[in-house]
Specification:
- The protein is 73% helix and 1% strand.
- The protein is an all-alpha fold.
- The protein starts with a helix and ends in a 9-residue tail after the last helix.
């Protein structure tokens, strides 16, 4: 099979899904372009800040993409390219895009509140508290995994101690990104130029940071960069969205779209063959003796790109607070998810090209992805070293963006856990609700877990992520039923993801118990504790939600 055929099939399917299914959902749920959104009614200058559709799309797309749609499909390619392609397309259209749209819609209709609030209002306070605790634990997992990925991408030295220029350039460019993003934030807030001028300024800042970064690489170790990343996250987590989150994601969206465009053109020109088999086996045992089954491994390994619970946190936690008009929800949520699915297909083609008779080459998924795209672009006479650096830069930039968003979501979940409208908060509760305290508490646990390494965290992250998706779908289904809107299109995704993720968590717990017989370390003990807590919380919240969904008729009026 040729990679071009796969890319064309995916593009047609995803465009058709947006035009027909996305618009069908918007009409069915009653998107109201005349309604005043929470960005205006709850405006506070920190989290609730009205933004143009392209700016919010940039935030949503860059936040949900990260390294996920590249890591997942390449790791899952051990099962063959056909299962991966089918899950990315079917999951992206009927699971992921529906979840993202429903989460954003429910949030916008409820003052821009998070899924936790939706659960409290439509399911119950106990369910809300348990969900917020689940969200907080999950956020810690995401921060730990992505921070480790970024730190290793920035690492300026090889295992032999030699300087790695590409990594050094990526690190310096990423720092310049942050500096220019802050400057762009002030520019967008305090000037009244047109969208065209704003876009030109953003692209100019993006190009300038790349040019300077490539010329001035900086070299530090992984340990230094891990500390730097966490220091950056702490600052980004409490900074007003207009000063860093919005402009940084605005810049990153152009970089990501440029990367995808170059990759798409490169594939069309190169015509890469799919060296991966169409299908390998339902059961695979690695050289280390670890056995993986197609179910549930494929469905939790490929999260971003098909369906990801993290997306529901971004849709309801940050993006919904910036939407100017309800009609923008379709492109920002549904459209961004489908574009991410397309990126996952590109990653699959890269894996197919890079594979040999011995399987995939050594290296991290982002390295495999960057090497393949660099080879495609070489046919367009682009220097391999430059294109490899730019692709790696794009991946690390989006991982950082995901960190920005999920850290803020974790901080908000921690704060909301202690909120109680029925009584006056005491001094201890007020202390824990402080945004700085909530941020530090989240980051301390994330830093401890990051030392375990992303490769060990990823299976637990994948299972927790997909369970979060099931819980978000249940919450949105209850909201739609309660407000007299049709939500039957959410039922199959939520039941499927419940089955997949609870099975995956049980398998992960069994693997961790087996690892105790070899060595008991802080890392596997911490993972086990997280896994057990996530399983218990997930099952409890799911039970409460399903009882509400299929129980007595709800009494809340339609909004």
């Amino acid at each position: 099979m040729n990679g071009v055929v796969i890319i064309v099939i995916a593009a047609i399917a995803l465009i058709a899904a947006y035009v027909f299914y996305g618009r069908y959902l918007a009409k069915k749920w009653g998107v109201d372009p005349d309604a005043k959104t929470p960005a205006y009614t709850e405006q506070d200058g920190v989290d609730y800040v009205p933004a143009d559709t392209n700016v919010v799309f940039g935030h949503q797309f860059a936040s949900i993409a990260g390294a996920g749609p590249i890591n997942g499909p390449i790791q899952a390619a051990i099962f063959g390219w056909v299962p991966v392609l089918l899950w990315v397309l079917l999951g992206g259209i009927f699971f992921g895009a529906v979840q993202d749209f429903a989460a954003m819609y429910a949030s916008v209709k409820n003052k821009g509140k998070s899924i936790g609030y939706i659960i409290e209002k439509y399911i119950g306070k106990t369910g809300k508290r348990l969900f917020l605790l689940f969200t907080w634990l999950f956020s810690i997992l995401v921060v730990a995994a992505f921070a480790d990925i970024v730190a290793k991408t920035f690492n300026g030295f090889s295992t032999e101690g030699a300087q790695v220029e590409a990594n050094g350039a990526v690190a310096s460019t990423s720092i310049l990104f942050i500096v220019f993003a802050v400057a762009l934030g002030f520019f967008l807030k305090y000037t009244k130029f047109s969208k065209t001028i704003n876009t030109m300024v953003a692209i100019g800042a993006l190009i300038l940071s790349i040019v300077i970064g490539l010329q001035l690489p900086i070299y530090f170790s992984t340990t230094f960069w891990l500390l730097f990343v966490f220091a950056y996250i702490i600052v980004a987590c409490v900074t007003p969205v207009w000063a860093l989150l919005q402009p940084r994601d605005f810049l990153n969206s152009y970089l990501l779209i440029a990367m995808m465009l170059f990759a798409f053109v490169g594939i069309l020109v190169y015509h890469p063959a799919m060296n991966l088999p169409a299908f390998t086996s339902f059961k695979i045992t690695s050289s280390a003796g670890v056995t993986s089954y197609l179910f549930p491994t494929l469905f939790v390994t490929i999260a971003c790109g098909a369906v990801s619970g993290f997306h529901s946190l971004v849709s309801s936690g940050t993006s919904s607070k910036q939407i100017k008009n309800e009609k923008s929800m379709l492109p920002v949520s549904f459209g961004a998810m489908l574009l991410e699915s397309f990126l996952a297909v590109i990653a699959l083609v890269c894996a197919g090209y890079a594979a040999t008779s011995n399987g995939l080459p050594s290296g991290t998924p982002p390295q495999i992805f960057a090497s393949a795209i660099a080879a495609f672009l070489e046919k367009l006479h682009m220097p391999t070293s430059a294109s490899f650096t730019l692709i790696t830069l794009a991946i690390s930039a989006f991982a950082l963006t995901s960190l920005d968003s999920v850290a803020r979501v974790g901080r908000i979940a921690f704060q909301e856990f202690f909120m109680d409208d029925e009584k006056e908060a005491g001094p201890i509760v007020k202390f824990l609700m402080n945004k700085y305290v909530a941020t530090i508490m989240t980051m301390v646990f994330a830093f401890a877990l990051a030392k375990v390494g992303y490769a060990n965290i990823w299976p637990l992250f994948g299972a927790a992520n997909q369970l979060l998706s099931a819980l978000a779908l249940i919450a949105c289904a209850v909201f739609l039923k309660t407000t007299k809107r049709q939500g039957v299109m959410l039922w199959l995704p939520m039941v499927t993801m419940l089955g997949v993720t609870l099975t995956a968590l049980v398998f992960k717990m069994i693997d961790l118990i087996k690892s105790f017989s070899v060595a008991v370390t802080g890392g596997n003990v911490l993972q086990f504790i997280f896994g057990v807590l996530l399983f218990i919380l997930g099952v409890t919240v799911a039970f409460e939600g399903l009882k509400k969904l299929f129980g007595q008729k709800a009494a809340v009026k339609s909004k």
